[in-house]
Amino acid sequence: xxxxxxxxxxxxxxLLAANADAKKFKDILGEFDAKQLKAIQEFFWDFxxxxxxxxxxxxxxxxxxEALEPTSKYQQRARCREPLGYCTISMCVRINPECAVKRxxxxxxxLRPFIETIVTARPxxxxxxxxxxxxxxxxxxxxKSTPAVKEEPLPSSARIIxxxxxxxxxxxxxxSAPAALPESSASDAKxxxxxxxxxxxIKEKFEKYRPKLWEMVEFDGLDHAFIMxxxxxxxxxxxSSRSEFEKMAKILSEEIASVIEQGDAAxxxxxxxxxxxxxxxxxxxxxxxxxIYLVGTSETVLPGKIHSLIVRLGExxxxxxxxxxxxxxxxxx
Length: 333
Description:
Radius of gyration: 21 Å
Number of domains: 2
Distance between the termini: 49 Å
Number of strands: 5
Protein name: Roadblock/LC7 family protein
Strand order of the largest sheet: 2-1-5-4-3
Low-confidence stretches: 137-155, 167-199
Organism: Chloroherpeton thalassium (strain ATCC 35110 / GB-78)
Order of helices and strands: HHHHHHHHHHHHEEHEEEH
Strand content: 5-15%
Helix content: 40-55%
Number of helices: 14
């Protein structure tokens, strides 16, 4: 197997060139170990989302997730002994690399038709500056885990690609829903005769964190991930299915206020994390500070895991927001 970064970068280009040849595509994947395949898979996931934006058929994370074998079915087929929801690439790369190789190879084979569609629409990807730019990218991307997919019938990649081309709007994920205004911006909106200025400002502020929310859905096993204000306004969302985020946020707003009140009564403050376990799933809330909260729900991630997951993801998001604010606050030279 290859052990250096350069062959991994070359493999990305070889896989692009072999997009129409399933056998050759699979043979190339067979040259790499679990850790290397993980980097390759993450690259092509981002490639499909990014590069399809300039093609007639635009793919969303939802299109990709629908093409993958549901995690629970893979666990059953692989006779995995881990509990449902614990099938993650990041973990298995370390503790069961042989299984991880099979899992990632299967994901990559499901991604190949998407890659073929993009390259067919944009043949220039196989030559010139694009290849040179990709060759200079880091081989290993930040660690992520495999997407947790709901237990649903598995459609073919070809069918999903066809549906995306025929009706991209109808298959767009719920994350495209417009963000609501927080209370602090309500008065500004009233002064705007078109009601657009404040909405655009708040959406722009949180737009940069949308990819992070999608990573939570795609790789960390959440069904829904969204950012909301204490007052119950949704500012950004990511989801594997359509959901009434505004209704959910209003109810959670009351829950947050109630938990804060309970904490105050016991002299416990500020509120950090709330985890709620139900028969069919788990919901977790993590404070990001300044009356902003990260909410995650999942039907497959176990209660103990989602608590640590929402804490870790919340802290990562909080750090990103802090860095962005400090960068904006720096005086211009």
